[in-house]
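Journal club prep — side note

Before the paper discussion, L.F. wants everyone to see what a predicted structure for a comparable chain looks like in token form. Sequence:
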Amino acid sequence: MSKALVNTDFHFEGQKQVYHGKVRDVYNINDEKLVMVATDRISAFDVVLPKGIPFKGQILNQIAAKFLDLTSDIVPNWKLSTPDPMVTIGVKCEPFPVEMIIRGYLTGSSWRTYKSGAREICGVKIPDGMKEHQKFPQPIITPTTKAAEGHDEDISKEEIIKRGLISKEDYKQIEQITYKLFERGSQIADSRGLILVDTKYEFGKKDGKIILIDEIHTPDSSRYFYKEGYQERFEKGEAQRQLSKEFVREWLMANGFQGKDGQKVPEMTDEIVSGITDRYIELYEHITGEKFVKASSEDLAKRIEDNVKKAL
């Protein structure tokens, strides 16, 4: 088995603090730069699973870096460099406390809300008579608050402005940028035989300018359908073939785990772990149109530390 990086404990020059997220560790360097390490941890149902997935961090980091480069003409982003396959170094911004979720299709949580009888999501009106996985007449933005703990909450544009989370002027700008990014992401997906179904973007401010932060268009932050067979499945009311980490959630659910009290994560055998790695590699190759090249997994921590120290 290849090795997985599940914990980091680096001490870089100028380091002020470190934030250990569910899957990424972020090192603050002098309140000027962030070193974001994409670990091989994997989470589902808000729970970090007990084993890491070799190459997952590399895969997500490289997809995000590629899409940040492919959208930098639309909006400046936080990325400065990728000194290691699992690391992005970028500028530290003041983040907006809201995630911009944009949906091109009625699926997932938006379908569940619609099916329960709601005809408005986050202040956006949804037409009657829609079916699961149906394309919206135009993409819709359904923002959520970014909770420090617990679950994010749906919120409307009006409420965001009223509560002063984002100014009216800034919100108007990030709304326009969100539509443009989604259009670009959809065009790229289409060229790879995929449909970008929904995704999320996060923004911050640096020196008065709006900056795109965090990862974009990865299978952890986005949902993709395969284009081939989409219409046929939709017309028959069948489930769509997805390219996202939904397959991990499905495996957990089939084994009686949904993150609820008293439930136990099923055993992650070497076979299960390497199967998840294979699926992530498949995601990478479909989304980028490139062959995935595995970086050496010998002493990952030392490799990352050396590469980051050189870059800083």
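L.F.'s comment for the group: The longest strand covers residues 194-206. Keep this in mind when we get to the figures.
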